[in-house]
Write a structure and sequence with these properties.
The complex is a heterodimer of chains A (about 90) and B (about 140).
Chain A lengths: L2 H12 L14 H18 L5 E4 L8 H7 L4 E5 L3 H8 L3
Chain B lengths: L8 H10 L6 H14 L4 H17 L3 H14 L5 H14 L3 H5 L10 E6 L5 H11 L2 E3 L3
The chains are: A mainly alpha (about 90), B mainly alpha (about 140).
């Protein structure tokens, strides 16, 4: 289950008409635990013994607030391109 | 639900997506055509109906019928508006800066298992992910 699937289903899961992210105001402890567990279950399906699982889905940046609520101890890495280096990569130099 | 005669657009689109696994694309085509002919639907529903219908015809190799549906879907799809997108993202960022957010419940796990990598396309996310896959006991969720 990707982060956007969790956030898409969150209003219905919380039983509110408010869209995401406004529905976060209705978040409960059990709901946030459950949502985190559903994501972690997907990771276990991918690999039972990997120490870490990277998730670089393109739209994750939209859900950083939700990620902070679901996984308070998880790392978030922000990759930034340097324009001059990017030019060299694009020209295959 | 379909066999009970429930004709719901979202249900029909789920059927359209899975129909090929059961060789039931023609049934899905008939259902989607029927729903489109009925009219009285918002563009947000009509657009994916056309898109799914195009895909179904494409799978059935009826390309002449597929193409007009893809064209219609693309006409209805809203154009990317960078200003509106920026406004939406700023609103979202401001939303999580509100005081309620610091008081919002956090999940009671201390897992460090997921690592989220964010950034612009071509900013090295794939290289970083591959590096970890090669060097650590690591797995990529998006794969």
């Amino acid at each position: 289950m990707a982060m956007n699937e969790i956030t898409d289903g969150l209003p219905a899961f919380l039983g509110t008409q408010m869209p995401y992210p406004q529905c976060l105001t209705a978040l409960t402890q059990s709901a946030v635990n459950d949502a985190a567990e559903r994501y972690l279950a997907t990771l276990r399906e991918l690999s039972a013994d990997a120490k870490h699982v990277t998730d670089k889905m393109p739209h994750n940046f939209k859900h950083l607030g939700m990620i902070a609520l679901l996984f308070p101890a998880a790392r978030v890495i922000h990759c930034k391109a340097q324009p001059d280096r990017q030019l060299l990569v694009d020209l295959h130099l | 639900m379909l066999e009970e005669g429930i004709e719901d657009e979202r249900l029909a689109m789920v059927f359209a997506k899975v129909a090929r696994h059961f060789g039931r694309q023609e049934e899905a085509v008939a259902l989607l055509e029927k729903l489109l002919a009925r009219g009285r639907m918002s563009e947000t529903i009509v657009e994916p109906l056309h898109f799914n219908l195009g895909k179904l015809y494409d799978e059935l190799k009826q390309y002449d019928k597929a193409f007009p549906h893809f064209e219609q879907a693309n006409r209805l799809r809203p154009c990317y508006d960078p200003d509106a997108f920026l406004q939406q993202m700023n609103a979202r960022a401001n939303f999580v800066r509100q005081p309620f957010f610091t008081r919002a419940p956090r999940a009671e796990n201390a897992t460090e298992r997921p690592i989220f990598i964010v950034g612009m396309p071509r900013s090295g996310q794939r290289s970083l992910s591959r590096f970890w896959l090669a060097t650590l006991r690591c797995m990529a969720a998006e794969s």
